[in-house]
Amino acid sequence: MPRETIISGTTEPDDRKRDAALRPKLLREVIGQKKVAQRLGIAVNASRKTKEPLGHILFDGPPGLGKTTFATVLPNELGTSIQMTSGPALSKQADLLPYLTNLEEGSILFIDEIHRMPRVVEEFIYPAMEDFRIDLVLGDGVNARTISMNLKRFTLIGATTRSGMLSSPMRDRFKMQEHLDFYTINELAEIVRVNARKLDTKISEEAALELARRSRGTPRIANSRLSWVRNFAISEADGSISMEIARRALDMAEVDSEGLDKQDRRYLETLIDVFGGGPTGVEAMAATMNIPSDTLSDEVEPFLLREQYIVRTPRGRLATQKGFLVVGRKQSTDGSSLFE
Ligand SMILES: Nc1ncnc2c1ncn2[C@@H]1O[C@H](COP(=O)(O)OP(=O)(O)OP(=O)(O)O)[C@@H](O)[C@H]1O
Quick check: is 68 catalytic? Predict the structure, then answer.
């Protein structure tokens, strides 16, 4: 898959390795998301003082914004261990069992994409979350009996790109629910500077800002841009990243100067050229673009909404004037599109 179409959770193995190496280890190393970090800091301090495990935590937000980062920072802060799995890997109760029986007192169980866990597994985990206990059914038919098994007290951390898809009994069992939002240009520039240092690469102030501007508000994308620009600098110059090198490298990767990627542009062009700017439903957009509607609503639309290229109306998605302009279309007086 060409790099510029990777906008998010579609992480390739190399991206995953790079992300893990660059991931902050402690809360104070986390850049941005200040309020979330402060609240977690308080919960961590309280847990240290009371020797009680942290309450269960749910992180939600678009891919690549740091849900896994926060989840992996917390055990470091608490000096405890973490086990990691994901909703799609837990198709039946027996898949979850080894994780529950391996728990240590105060340790963390991280379930990514928790909204994709089937209902039977979800219901199995309720008593574990509430009373640190599970109910196992042994045998079947008339011989079936239920035994209760006590677990070590633990913290469940769930991550989801779609909190709306979680059942409310599940959501209510999380003591803290933290939403992660897109990063500002300055926060992303700071992440780029820190990570360039970790990679032993010199980068100018303005080049860091340029990378930040073209990273779609997302640290994972900033890391991937940095990695490309660094390779470009090594291959084509002396290895340090100046503004000129950053621009040439990003232009070559077809990363546009507005920070949109190809998928964003295709979305806007489809909405405007095929649907006259909308309003139109996400399913119609998905069918026309031949992309799953989940990908559109989880990965593409949140950034376009936040940057006000589109708005959501009761009748569907509507391109704004800014949305028309960024893809070089003009809005006619009746709201439909005119090619420039
Ligand atoms: N607040 C932050 N400060 C510094 N770096 C960050 C921050 N958040 C994320 N990153 C960087 O971005 C990478 C991607 O973040 P992470 O894997 O935590 O995202 P995520 O929200 O869990 O994504 P997904 O839902 O796709 O798994 C991290 O490895 C880290 O290098």
Answer: yes
Task: Please tell me the CATH superfamily of domain 33-179, with its number.
Answer: P-loop containing nucleotide triphosphate hydrolases (3.40.50.300)
**Cα 153 from Cα 108, distance rounded (Å):** 9
Rounded Cα gap, residues 173 and 264, in angstroms: 35
Is the torsion defined by CA of 204, 205, 209, 215 positive or negative?
positive
Is the C-beta atom of 30 inside 6 A of ligand 1? yes
Is residue 151 predicted with pLDDT exceeding 70?
yes
161 is catalytic: yes
Q: What is the pTM of this model?
A: 0.86
**Would you list the domain boundaries of the chain?**
33-179, 185-252, 262-339
- Domain 185-252 -> CATH class: mainly alpha
Type of residue numbered 222: A
**Domain 262-339, classified CATH 1.10.10.10, yes or no:** yes
Please confirm, yes or no, whether 67 is among the known catalytic residues: yes
ipTM: 0.95
65 is in an annotated binding site: no
Q: State how far Cα 290 lies from the chain centre.
A: 23
Query: CB atoms < 10 A from the CB of 185, how many?
Result: 17
**What token pair was written down for 4?**
């510029």
Burial status of residue 154 (CB atoms within 10 A of its CB: 0-12, 13-18, 19 or more)? buried
326-337: pLDDT as tens digits: 988 887 766 555
Contact partners, residue 211, CB within 8 Å, separation at least 6: 188, 189, 192, 203, 222, 225, 226, 229, 246, 250
Catalytic residue among 161, 218, 270, 295: 161
DSSP at 184: P
Q: How far, in Å, CA of 5 to CA of 20, rounded? A: 21
Does the CB atom of residue 22 touch ligand 1 within 6 A? yes
Given a cut of 70, whether residue 338 has pLDDT beyond it is no
The reply to whether ligand 1 has any atom less than 6 angstroms from the CB of 111 is no
Interatomic CA distance for residues 106 and 115, integer angstroms: 24
